[in-house]
Amino acid sequence: MDNNENLSTEQTPQENELSHSDKMIGIFTEPSNTFESIAKFPVRSIDWVLPVVIIFILVGLMRSLAMLNVDVVLQTKQKQIEMFDKMVSEGKMTQEQADKAIEGIDKQMEFMRGPIGWIINVVSTLIFGFIFFFIIAGIYFLLIKFILKGEGSYQHVLVASGLTSYISMIQVLIGGILTFLLGKIVMDTSVANFIELEQGSILKFFLSKIDPVSIWAYSVLAIGLAKLNRAQNTTAYFILVFTLWILGGLLFFFLGKIFPFLGGFAG
User: Fold this and answer.
1) How far apart are CA 218 and CA 225, in angstroms?
2) Residue 51 neighbours by CB distance under 10 Å
3) What is the pTM of this model?
4) Kindly report the CA angle at 170 between 215 and 125, in degrees rounded to 5?
5) Any stretches that span the bilayer, and where are they (predicted)?
6) What's the rounded Cα separation, in Å, for the pair 16 and 23?
7) Mean pLDDT value of segment 29-51
8) pLDDT of 39 strictly over 80
9) How many angstroms separate the CA atoms of 241 and 222, rounded?
10) What pLDDT is attached to residue 109?
């Protein structure tokens, strides 16, 4: 009888796999323990597919809702006109081509404010969002695999990035609210939104990185990548994630100077 009691006391109960809702909550409450638990079980596609689908649908809807604000519409139109004028001055298009493009802005905006425009906006955001998501995840995977010698797979990077999207959704929602309150398109929750600076200035770029929600999300991503790759120390992963965030943003910032339509990716 005593032997049986001792045996049962020494046995460790088997850990149960967390449900997706538990993982979602854990990302906010205890990300380190949550990712440690996830690493013990096979990768679940739902852990990255669901949050990524939700966040890109949310982004598409917020963009469509923003176009219902008159001030936002005027600002967007003005930016496009300035872009065409700049392309004319740089010899990238003729004045006649620019005039035709400007004439079509109102029709395009009116169309995008309709139901078909909403659908196109959401679907296109999903498609290009997923492409961008897969490319960034691939870059993380290659750097982790060959520089940090991580043990995880590409799917592990997808899971870490996908689950972190739940935090980014807060940024999307706040950005949508600020867009209506400020009457201008707000893409993030950074200091740059509240300081009047020249569009496209390097100072504005660096102020856009002073963003509490982004810093929170990238910190959780670094923890997730470290835990899913069974790393003993997370420091290298923090350095990797934040370096890629800054350098990647700078790359798109300077490319945006050459190709204006890329400017929106600088964040």
Assistant:
1) 10
2) 24
3) 0.84
4) 100
5) 48-66, 118-144, 156-182, 237-259
6) 12
7) 97
8) yes
9) 6
10) 80
Measured CA to CA, the distance from residue 129 to residue 49 in angstroms comes to: 12
Q: How far apart are CA 118 and CA 218, in angstroms?
A: 30
What is the rounded average pLDDT of the residues 8-28?
Answer: 79
Tokens of 122: 């959401």
Q: Where are the domains of the chain?
A: 20-68+113-266
Compute the Cα dihedral for 145, 151, 153, 155 and give only its sign.
negative
Residue 232: other Cβ atoms inside 10 A: 5
Q: How far apart are the C-alpha atoms of 78 and 75, rounded to whole Å?
A: 5
| Residues whose CB falls within 8 Å of the CB of residue 237, separated by 6 or more in sequence, listed in order | 144, 148, 222, 223, 225, 226, 229, 231
Q: Classify burial at 70, counting beta carbons within 10 Å of its beta carbon; exposed 0-12, middle 13-18, buried 19 or more.
A: exposed
- Weakest-pLDDT range from 126-140, 141-155, 170-184: 170-184
Q: Residue 62 is encoded by which pair of tokens?
A: 């917020």
* Under 8 Å between Cβ of 199 and 174: no
Q: Is the pLDDT of residue 242 over 60?
A: yes
Residue 246 to residue 242: CA distance in whole angstroms:
6
Residue 267 DSSP label: -
Residue with tokens 């200035």: 201
Give residue-wise pLDDT tens across range 115-133.
Answer: 898 999 999 999 999 999 9
Angle at 121 between CA 85 and CA 25, to 5 degrees: 120
